[in-house]
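Q: Please design a sequence for this.
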């Protein structure tokens, strides 16, 4: 049994002080410090079990963050098709408060995409197989991966628009075809679609097939008109890839994909680095959609965590200067953002309270993945995925399924 004391617990709708969080692989209980220390006493036990105590030192204690859109970090990229590279990404993500993530592929020729998906599948089998061998049912054991866990894969392409391809590989763009996804439908959790690139019947069939296999269809990298986007949402698309970026913007006579997204019930990703999206546009999205339909992501590339200098994304040369990652022609190419930085920026830009801000990186992605009550919250029965941070969202400790995977407590 473990306990975190002297922390500020961020729950779904409130922040608790003077309470203790008790957990093993799962959250067991929240009790008052008075109650806990009265029983803990000199014996160091709770309900007859020895307890390892972590003193939060007044820091926030929150559910672990979920990063659903990340290409790479620390010199590694999902398209490297390397399970060891994914393990390195896992370690770095834990340093940023992330306890689970979706490695994200790029628009590439299918053999390269499939190799990347094979690596994701291998990495997932390692983490879950080790958990099963150690502690029972797969996925419920002590953290077998070195940091954040992989929950599946995110396909950013190749079903995108040439007009708004951004840093995507133009020669590999193709029309949506579910048969291409079928062999990996067990691990693909999100796929990006530019709905205007197929006719209405093809669009609806593709979205329906994805929904049947529990794959989220996300609109993005798209030249869709307002009406085309609205029709795709009506057909079952339920997500938007990095809202505002690489899509038709809002105009009062042509509302575009942005305008359709504002009016939809879809979850909208946001790269809150104050470069991809102005602070005012972040605040506007929050006012229009609220904390339950906004999802902070990093969309980070392999240069994340390495500082300025040359890098690569999707086979294209990238240069990072002053924290901006761009192609040779100046096109923004992903980010070097970390999710704890995104949380800090979004709170500053919106003025929202901590429970609302944290929902965008915990409960919202957990609900999308049908893991509410298991991930993304501090409640009895949920997995003990926890992160501790200060007012600047500097991460002090990250815990995955009850095991500490990163600690920098000073």
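A: Design:
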């Amino acid at each position: 049994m473990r306990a975190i004391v002297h922390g500020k617990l961020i729950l779904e709708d409130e922040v608790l002080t003077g309470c203790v969080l008790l957990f093993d692989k799962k959250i067991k209980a929240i009790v008052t410090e008075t109650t806990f220390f009265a029983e803990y006493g000199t014996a160091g036990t709770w309900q007859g079990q020895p307890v390892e105590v972590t003193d939060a030192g007044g820091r926030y204690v929150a559910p672990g963050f979920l990063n659903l859109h990340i290409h790479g970090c620390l010199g590694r990229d999902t398209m490297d098709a390397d399970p060891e590279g994914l393990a390195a990404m896992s370690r770095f993500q834990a340093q940023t408060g992330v306890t689970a993530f979706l490695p994200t592929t790029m628009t590439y020729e299918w053999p390269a995409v499939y190799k990347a998906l094979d690596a994701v599948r291998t990495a997932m089998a390692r983490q879950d197989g080790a958990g099963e061998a150690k502690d029972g049912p797969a996925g419920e054991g002590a953290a077998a991966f070195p940091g954040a866990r992989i929950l599946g894969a995110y396909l950013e392409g190749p079903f995108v628009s040439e007009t708004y391809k951004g840093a995507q590989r133009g020669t590999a763009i193709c029309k949506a075809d579910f048969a291409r996804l079928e062999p990996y439908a067990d691990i693909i959790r999100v796929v990006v679609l530019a709905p205007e690139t197929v006719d209405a019947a093809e669009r609806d069939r593709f979205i329906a097939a994805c929904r049947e296999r529990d794959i989220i269809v996300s609109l993005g990298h798209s030249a869709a008109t307002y009406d085309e986007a609205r029709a795709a949402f009506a057909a079952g698309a339920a997500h938007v890839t990095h809202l505002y970026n690489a899509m038709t913007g809002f105009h009062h006579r042509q509302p575009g994909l942005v305008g359709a997204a504002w009016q939809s019930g879809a979850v909208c990703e946001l790269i809150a680095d104050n470069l991809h999206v102005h602070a005012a546009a972040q605040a506007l999205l929050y006012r229009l959609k609220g904390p339950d339909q906004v999802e902070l992501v990093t969309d980070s590339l392999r240069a994340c965590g390495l500082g300025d200098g040359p890098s690569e994304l999707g086979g294209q040369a990238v240069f990072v200067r002053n924290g901006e990652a761009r192609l040779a022609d100046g096109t923004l190419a992903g980010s070097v953002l970390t999710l704890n930085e995104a949380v800090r920026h979004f709170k500053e830009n919106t003025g929202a309270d901590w429970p609302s801000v944290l929902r965008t990186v915990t409960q919202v992605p957990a609900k999308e993945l049908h893991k509410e009550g298991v991930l993304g919250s501090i409640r009895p029965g949920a997995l003990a995925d926890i992160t501790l941070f200060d007012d600047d969202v500097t991460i002090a400790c990250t815990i995955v399924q009850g095991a500490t995977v990163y600690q920098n407590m000073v």
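Q: Thanks. Anything notable?
A: The first strand starts at residue 2 and ends at 10. The chain is about 30% helix and 25% strand.
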